[in-house]
Amino acid sequence: MTVLFAGIAAGEQQPPAGSSIPLIQANTELVLVDALVTDANNNPPIATLNASDFQLTENGSPQTISSCSRNALPLSIVMLFDLTDSVQSQLKALSTQALEVLSHLRPEDEVAVMTFSSTTHLLQPFTRDHAAISDAIQQAARNHSKEATFIDEVVYESAQEAQRATTPHSRRVLLFFTDGTSDPPTPLTRKISPSAPKALHSQAEAQRNLLAHGVTVSAVIERSALTSATLIEQNVNPLDTLLGFAVGYRIHSKDFQHFAEMTGGPYLRGNGKDSAQRMIQIIDELRNRYTLGYRPDSSCAAGEFCRIALRFSPGALKQYPELKARHFRIETRTGYYR
Q1: Is the domain 75-285 a CATH 3.40.50.410 member?
Q2: How far is the C-alpha of 84 from the C-alpha of 91, rounded, in Å?
Q3: Contact present, 3 and 267 (Cβ < 8 Å)
Q4: Which of 21, 54, 212, 252 is 20–30 Å from 193 (CA)?
């Protein structure tokens, strides 16, 4: 049986270097999809659904869900701290939130700590030693970078680090602490970013690296006054907009959200008050997701991207009227590579 964690390519003969995820080759493949059921009011996830409450399609073709469980799996989290200018005023608060999250983790969970701007820097490889993780978080809070934020490169590199997790069958998560903005790689932003690799990875390459290895992106977004002012000016001043397109200054504000939604990861727009508590809730959500299993019946070839869509079944909407009335949604990744 080939087990695909909705993103582990069955065509690979061996797991990626440094990966602890087993790849078992046989005649039948089973795709496992993580899913989280949440509502718009941040109420606790629903814990009582079963396979008949979901409808799943692969490339538009209905699939039969053969298993459904809700297990508390261990987490392998890469904490990533944004060091760029616009985040500096919020970096200490973000590190404090990270320390509170750390105190909520279980003994079997492991954490790696990285910083980023135009590229990533590893401060602490995966460990369960909370003292070492705490030291790395506090070290990150003291750092600073004048370089741009090349999010596609950062996501690609940090997904590589996630593959070095040491806990078998853990849920692998990139947890970003940031203001949520990034920069396009233009001659101007490349010039101020000497640490960036000469050949940057594209968004498509970053997405494939995430989906091919079952890595979820989540983010805590705290906007500084500088960030908010820049975004407002950029959006309301036509001259600034034209100048931005011309010189490469126009910043992006939805890239982190894009990666989170694509991988089914929750993200938090903080307000500095209850952010830590909400972040702890997100950690619980990541740990306690549903895992749905199915044997695919679609025309996907080996190495091809297979698109997944997951929704509530008519029976679930009838049995649980609150699913519709309270605007519940299902968060899951958009697909996997066979």
Answers
A1: yes
A2: 9
A3: no
A4: 212
Angle 255-263/203-212 helices, nearest 10 degrees? 30
Total length of the chain: 338
DSSP state of 193: -
Give the containing element (helix H, strand E) for 205.
Answer: helix 203-212
Verdict on whether the full-model pTM lies above 0.85: no
Q: For residue 190, what are the β-bridge partners?
A: none
Over the chain (338 residues), the average pLDDT of each successive run of 10 is: 42 38 45 84 75 94 93 91 90 90 93 98 98 97 95 98 93 93 90 96 96 92 62 52 46 82 85 71 84 86 90 88 73 90
Asked if 165 and 270 count as a contact pair (C-beta separation under 8 A), the reply is no
Contact 38, 134 (CB under 8 A): no
Helix/strand/coil (H, E, C) string of 237-276? Answer: CHHHHHHHHHHCCCCECCHHHHHHHHHCCCEEECCCCCHH
203-219 b/e with 16+ CB inside 10 Å = b? Answer: beebbbbbbbbbbbbbb
How far is it, in rounded angstroms, from Cα 330 to Cα 30?
21
Instruction: Pinpoint the residues of the chain covered by CATH 3.40.50.410.
Output: 75-285
Q: State the Cα–Cα distance between residues 96 and 141, nearest whole angstrom.
A: 9
* DSSP per residue, 142-163: T----S---HHHHHHHHHHHHT
Q: How far apart are CA 69 and CA 293, in angstroms?
A: 9
Phi first, then psi, for residue 57 (nearest 5°) are: -125, 150
